[in-house]
Design brief:
The protein has 283 residues and is of the alpha/beta class. It folds into two domains: 65 residues, Orthogonal Bundle (Chemotaxis Receptor Methyltransferase Cher, domain 1), CATH 1.10.155.10; 158 residues, Vaccinia Virus protein VP39 (Rossmann fold, 3-Layer(aba) Sandwich). 37% of the residues lie in helices and 18% in strands. A seven-stranded mixed sheet has the order 6-2-1-7-8-10-9. Strands 3-5-4 form a three-stranded antiparallel sheet. It is globular and about 60 Å long. The structure holds S-adenosylmethionine. The site of S-adenosylmethionine has 24 residues, from loops.
């Protein structure tokens, strides 16, 4: 027998919530997420003083958008880590940084699309600080975007627990973190030089992108796995449009582009370069 719930939550409520989620985020919610939805959203009902999920759905439908942000914050999966999928950071350091180093004076723009709590853009920043000569004098920016406002707040604060440090305990990376003392014991913060390279912004990958630049590298890792195939295809096309001529796209380990994007060719494990219509890739 399932435990008695504090709030009535029917299948119709779940279906309505998952429709709102997919329409606003592209995230496809599977049947197996029923309990997770209840567990994560019961707190919202409590805070709003609502008596059941039917009332919560009604509230979302007549909302000005602010409760929708809370819904999205509650259901997104923000799992990430410093230097997650380390081979991408090796590729960045060994292939892209030398290329950029050979073009002094040329601006460098990188986009971490779906940056969650910031470990990904800060890892990119540390690679550049370590490996790009004259890094402090380069016109270099890392744009880091996500849909989840809570994750973005944490990212901007740049404070992590020592358990989240992972390889940051080792050189050279530990040079780029400050260790908390006293009341801050058990926490680290990214150094100002690292934070200074990253601009955080809320951006919905299935909405409008108010971006003016082209990017030399786009990291869009472990985001598309939550989308259906047509949404993925459109997103990959739009990412291709935002890449500079010799730009690279980094995807998550489960996000192969095979059969999805003829405009890209693989150059390393889940790293892709644009194929140029004027310069077709050799067969
Ligand atoms: C699993 S995390 C991946 C974090 C990081 N890229 C990594 O690989 O470690 C996925 C992130 O994608 C974000 N996300 C999901 N749908 C999104 C959308 N439509 N627009 C922008 N971000 C989205 C989530 O909020 C979450 O922070």
């Amino acid at each position: 027998m399932p435990a008695k719930r504090e709030y009535a939550f029917t299948r119709a409520d779940f279906m309505a919530l998952r429709r709102l989620v997919v329409d606003h985020t592209g995230i496809v919610v599977t049947d197996g997420k029923f309990e997770m939805f209840y567990a994560r959203l019961a707190r919202r009902l409590r805070l709003l003083g609502l008596t059941d999920f039917k009332a919560y759905v009604a509230r979302l439908r007549e909302d000005d958008g602010s409760e929708l942000i809370e819904l999205i914050n509650a259901i997104t999966t923000n799992l990430t880590g410093f230097f997650r999928e380390a081979h991408h950071f090796d590729y960045l350091a060994d292939h892209l940084v030398p290329r950029w180093a050979a073009r002094p004076g040329v601006p460098i723009r990188i986009w971490s699309a779906g940056c969650a709590t910031g470990e990904e853009p800060y890892s990119i920043a540390m690679v550049l600080l370590e490996r790009l000569p004259d890094v402090q004098r380069r016109d270099l920016r890392i744009l880091a975007t996500d849909l989840d406002t809570q994750a973005l707040e944490q990212a901007q604060a740049a404070v992590y627990t020592t358990e989240q440090m992972g390889c940051l305990t080792r050189l050279p990376w530990r040079r780029w973190v400050l260790r908390g003392r006293g009341a801050q014991e058990g926490h680290i913060r990214m150094r100002p030089e690292v934070r200074a390279l990253v601009d955080f912004r809320r951006l919905n990958l299935i909405g409008d992108w108010p971006l003016r630049r082209e990017y030399d590298a786009i990291f869009c890792r472990n985001v598309m796995i939550y989308f259906d195939a047509p949404t993925k295809r459109v997103l990959v096309e739009r990412l291709a449009d935002r890449l500079a001529e010799d730009g690279h796209l980094f995807l998550g380990h489960a996000e192969s582009l095979i059969g999805l994007a003829p405009r890209f060719r693989p150059v390393a494990r889940t790293v892709y370069a644009l194929v140029h219509p004027t310069k077709p890739a050799p067969l």
